[in-house]
Amino acid sequence: MSIKVGVVGGSGYTGGELLRILSFHPGVEIVGVTSRKFKGEPVHRAHPNLRGLVTLKFTETLEPVASALDWVFIALPHGESMKVTPRFTASGIGVVDLSADFRLKSAESYKTWYGREHMQPDLLDRAVYGLPELYGNELKRARLIAAPGCNPSAALLSLAPAVSNRLIENGPVTVTALVGSSGAGRSSSVTSSHAERTGVMRAYSVANHRHTAEIEQELSRLAGSSMSVAFTPVSVNNIRGILTLSHAGGRARVEELWKAYREFYRGRKFVRIVRDQAGELQRYPDPKFTLGSNFADVGFESDARLSRLVFFGALDNLVKGAAGQAVQAFNIAAGLDESTGLLQPPLHPA
Amino acid sequence: MSIKVGVVGGSGYTGGELLRILSFHPGVEIVGVTSRKFKGEPVHRAHPNLRGLVTLKFTETLEPVASALDWVFIALPHGESMKVTPRFTASGIGVVDLSADFRLKSAESYKTWYGREHMQPDLLDRAVYGLPELYGNELKRARLIAAPGCNPSAALLSLAPAVSNRLIENGPVTVTALVGSSGAGRSSSVTSSHAERTGVMRAYSVANHRHTAEIEQELSRLAGSSMSVAFTPVSVNNIRGILTLSHAGGRARVEELWKAYREFYRGRKFVRIVRDQAGELQRYPDPKFTLGSNFADVGFESDARLSRLVFFGALDNLVKGAAGQAVQAFNIAAGLDESTGLLQPPLHPA
Amino acid sequence: MSIKVGVVGGSGYTGGELLRILSFHPGVEIVGVTSRKFKGEPVHRAHPNLRGLVTLKFTETLEPVASALDWVFIALPHGESMKVTPRFTASGIGVVDLSADFRLKSAESYKTWYGREHMQPDLLDRAVYGLPELYGNELKRARLIAAPGCNPSAALLSLAPAVSNRLIENGPVTVTALVGSSGAGRSSSVTSSHAERTGVMRAYSVANHRHTAEIEQELSRLAGSSMSVAFTPVSVNNIRGILTLSHAGGRARVEELWKAYREFYRGRKFVRIVRDQAGELQRYPDPKFTLGSNFADVGFESDARLSRLVFFGALDNLVKGAAGQAVQAFNIAAGLDESTGLLQPPLHPA
Amino acid sequence: MSIKVGVVGGSGYTGGELLRILSFHPGVEIVGVTSRKFKGEPVHRAHPNLRGLVTLKFTETLEPVASALDWVFIALPHGESMKVTPRFTASGIGVVDLSADFRLKSAESYKTWYGREHMQPDLLDRAVYGLPELYGNELKRARLIAAPGCNPSAALLSLAPAVSNRLIENGPVTVTALVGSSGAGRSSSVTSSHAERTGVMRAYSVANHRHTAEIEQELSRLAGSSMSVAFTPVSVNNIRGILTLSHAGGRARVEELWKAYREFYRGRKFVRIVRDQAGELQRYPDPKFTLGSNFADVGFESDARLSRLVFFGALDNLVKGAAGQAVQAFNIAAGLDESTGLLQPPLHPA
User: Fold this and answer.
1) Is D137 a catalytic site residue?
2) Whole-model pTM?
3) Nearest to D129 by CA among D104, D109, D150, D161
């Protein structure tokens, strides 16, 4: 029997990706999807790729189907999500929130980085950080899941084995993230137009990006002590995909890194360790080979000359960096195999 | 119980796409895949996207697994395929050939367009043209399937209802096809390099492209009389995707066209008719909304001022234009539902 | 002594391109540039490429510098231009208008295609169509120049020699134009965003595009009799560049076409005839090789099998299809060599 | 009277760019250009953009025109250049070498990083490093110029003012360089094909890239003490353009950085300091705004929270990162204004 799910905020890119994945998921039935802008219109008006596959119409809220709902996925902007979440949690409906509203453990930290008071500080404790490779056990009982975004997902998955094995000797960790345009959501600014956005190599939010807080929180937990992260996102000429390059001091050799990563990710279906010798070239993770899939590819290099380590994390920001990961976390919480509906191979070349 | 399949010529883009689709297909088991260049190496060396999903190694031939084979997919270049096909057909193994070798019904026409003698003229009669929307019945008993390529697939699917309803009043049909780089296969020429190929708008094989023969053959069959096609392919700045724009004389109104297309494709899962009013704009098919899927989107316009008709066909050249269509035709011949393993939604935005 | 010029509507792409070209032009001095949106701001706020090269600020109008002006370039939307043009022509200031407002010779035709009454029908006769390869003599005395847009420029330059030599035997001429995103101007719609616009192959305004009127007007003049054009623009994945492919009936052989084109463009600096044998391939015009330059590349093919001719026109839509051509026409009217300031080589690879 | 120049190795991208720039340079005449592969063919066979603009044919060597030569530009691969350089220097012909052969001051360091003995160690002392913003005086008398490549140019120009003002307090400097496909030269490998190279985010030569040596050499000279650089290049989805992001420890405030950069680059024509507030966004350098030009845009940020500094350098790798810079250095050595022939504005949008 299918689990009944709804999607709140279904007309953006994360919403569309949730619909793409959930409509193909053998264990769920989508009973409602909301959009203020598109209410009353068929889903394929916002997502022409889903023509003939998702036949629902957008509604303004999930009220009409609320009594049938088992779980909701919330794909609203930061700050909007915490306004509606309590309605669902109060009714015993499971919530997977894809915004940043429940990712930080401290309401104070939320205020520092997001510049406003948290409206539901009591829910922060109940929320489980939805990165299954780190919180697999906690997710089994979760009813409020805070799914992480693309930057923290790529950074944390690529750094976690090294940090938890104390292979990073001195910080801060310098994280550079190359990001595609879909990460900024469905946008209509001049800056995001094809002619302006194509071909950019453009750093933004240098030294003050909000995702820094999440990455520091989780790395510190893994390390058992406070860690600092200097995070720099750079827009590049892609629609999908994120690559994080992280530098830190350390003398671990490649063999030690291999061992740490193999053990950490043993048995995990969605993390692939990529470090191949192809002719004279060393091949590292590249999000091109994860396109449309829930895989995260991670890799590393040791720079013996300077006693430094470099880490790479690559994934599709809308799948493993958003909707796919949300479904993976949901699967665990709903008692399904974590890979249910998520094993489509990446598309290549594309 | 799974059907045992092999792939001959598995290191190119069509081969990789066959592996991507077949590895996710619930009714088949891949028992062998060949590549001269990559023999002995794991599949992910040629197709890094399949790392962790396809664990076979390439072999030089399928000999070692021949006795286990039920069907083979042949993804060799034109002219190579007909050399190996008889080995399989002689052993009762079903064959889906993705080259052009068995698409033309006449050995003479093959010689005219391909500049060489056909080596297996007796097999031409047994081959069924693998376009399931036109040959669904014939495919049920087929043991040798000649899967069409991307240009004919897009052109034929977009024109078939008009032609079979005699809505085209005078010819020739002028077909312009915009094509991505993956259509030329895995290439290492200077001309196909990123710096040279990015951003092109480049016509080629004008007035002499070989696919003309296939399109004329099938349109003439549908029309019941000889039809001429002026075919012009143009390379554009995409990896995947093909759009055909076809012009011909005709006075049919849009309503008549709607009716003809609706009836022709009633009950077909993989053809979507696209003609939406979105604000002031009319939306026609665009391969962007079919990416990674087996859908073909078709549409049309009537130019009353000049008594002319315009037809659009859009699809992913590696899926509905190659590997996906081959699997769809195979499904029918193997007694499965034609959509088995092929219903993944298109990816958007990507 | 420099000619003093102003630019009206300088914050869009055509305006920016005018500033790029005029700032590098040895015979002119830019004395003013207007923008409502950016008034008071430095030019590099709208055009960051011009930082350090154009140090003007945008003003709301050219009033403050009107008495110093010799010529103005108007880069306003269709319909806006004819509101301001008379102010300049009445003061004896030469005008190069880049909108469509003065391109059609008949106010009636303007109403048919643009859906509104022309506000300055008496100026239509005085306007010279600013395609220097067709109107070189008329431009010498012009004081109001209607610079054509990218679609008509590419189509007309590629067809003119064939049409004027009566090599097209039966019509209509079917013109397909592949166009980049900059042709739509500086836009902020969702549809034009990077994620939505990248990778499209999307026909629009099929059978009703306004530029049809211009192309028919000028071809008919060249032919000496009425000609019909079925024009279909298709958005493709480029920022700059346009390629027109035109089909028509005709039996001229390639040698005849060479002769007609060579003679027609003898001595013209900005039209290059492209038809090379490169190995087995025939090379036709591609806008990639005109990027950033004022060149138009034209070519042709003869399809003897079907008695049809194919014509290609390739250019940079913002230069030879807009600002560069406007400056070329201005040069002639101002008594300068037509190539002054316009001979920068195209950029490749880019 | 024109200076007579030749180009050795003119069929690659750097060679093509030299021809593009030199053919438009008012002070030089190109008297010969060599290519083994294209000897006897017209230049536009290799560089279709130059059709009609450069009418020379490639020759195998410059022997036939040697007596007329004043200067040669050598655009051969590393290791090849030092084989031919002495022939020219011995005849008193000025040489601008665009390879890495004469950039390092020590033959030992050359052997360490390039894995072979230097063939002309005595010429290393005579060579002047061709970065005009650092070696303007030395270049005035240079007869052998070692023009730097794109990575060192962007890194050094963005770091020089900070390093020479001792604003970097602890190292190493972590330099990440995003690079386009043209930086790898004219290539025909499968890996560099359009389908494989489009959309990559791919680190390579991590911890062992040869350009590290140059950057360390020049930064150490500026600092007056040894500096270490951890350099990571990453291929991204562009043809042209490079962006370097450099991180290091430091507490300088933004005002101090402004002051240091303004003073260092006062009067320099080709370096622009970019740090704008555009609405809520801070705008940093982006190579998109330098396309086709000789400009280098530099910028910086101060991360007070972590006492770290970030530096950005953006340029067109084929112009300011190769051919343009070579011509700029040549201009100085030849007694011309350094900007002669180099002031074309960048192209935007493109």
Assistant:
1) no
2) 0.97
3) D104
